Amino acid sequence: MPRDIFPRASLELSAAREKLAPDIHDAFANFSKRVVAERGPMIRIKRTYEPATRQDGQRFLIERLWPRGMKKEALAMDGWLKDVAPSTELRQWFGHRPERWEEFRRRYKKELSVNADAWKPLLEAGRKGTVTLLYSAHDTEHNGAIVMRDFLLARARRGSTSTPRSSAARSRGSAKHPMTARSRVAH
Predict the structure, then answer these.
(1) Which residues, listed in sequence order, are joined to residue 80 by a DSSP beta bridge?
(2) What is the DSSP string of 100-118?
(3) Comparing C-alpha atoms, which of 167, 95, 81 is closest to residue 131?
(4) What are the angstrom distances between the C-alpha of 59 and each of 64, 136, 186, 187?
C-alpha cells in the first residue's frame, strides 16, 4: 500500500506545479513592474565583451565607435545609440585619463542635457524593465556608461524626461517628437 501512495503524491505535485507555473510567472512579472514603478528604472552597465545574460533586459550599445575586434553578429543588443555617446571632441580630450574624470563627467552631462531626444528612449525602456548600457572601454571605473547611467537615474528620480526649458519655450508649448522610442534605435 505505501508504494501506491507515493506515485499518486508525485503525480499530484507535478499537476500542481503545472497549474501554478503561469501564475508564478505572472506574479513575478507584476512584481518586477511594481519594483520599477516604486524604485525607478533598473539601469545596468556592462562591457560589450562580456556575454549577454537574461538579467540584462534590453541591451543598448552607447558608443560612437564600434567595439574593436567584435563582429556585429557577435554582439547581442537591441540597438546602437551613437547619439548618446560623448562627442568625438570630448572623447578624444578625455582619453580615459583618470585625472580628467570629474571634468569629463561635467562636460558629458552638459552634452546630454541639451540632447534629450537621444537619451529619452533609454529612460522610457528603463521604465518598462531592465536596461543594460553596453560600453567598450577597458577602464571600468572611468567611462561614459557610468556617467550615462547616473544621468538617467537622476532624471528618473526627478520624474522627468525633459530638460529645463526657457520661459519663452514654455509659453510656446512643445510638440512631441514624431518618432517613437523603437524607431529611434539604430540597429
Answers:
(1) 61, 186
(2) GHHHHHHHHHHHHHT-HHH
(3) 81
(4) 15, 13, 12, 11
Q: How many CB atoms lie within 10 A of CB 151?
A: 21
Task: For the chain, give the number of residues.
Answer: 187
Q: Which strands sit side by side in the sheet containing 79-80, from one edge to the other? A: 43-47, 131-135, 58-61, 79-80
Strand partners, 47: 135
Residue 124 neighbours by CB distance under 10 Å: 16
**Cell numbers describing residue 126:** 528603463
Mean pLDDT by 10 residues, the chain (187 residues): 52 65 59 51 93 95 95 94 96 96 98 95 93 95 96 86 42 36 38
Burial class (CB in 10 A: 0-12, 13-18, 19+), 178: exposed
- Strands of the chain, DSSP E: 43-47, 58-61, 79-80, 131-135
**Cα–Cα distance measured from residue 174 to residue 143, given in angstroms and rounded to the nearest whole number:** 33
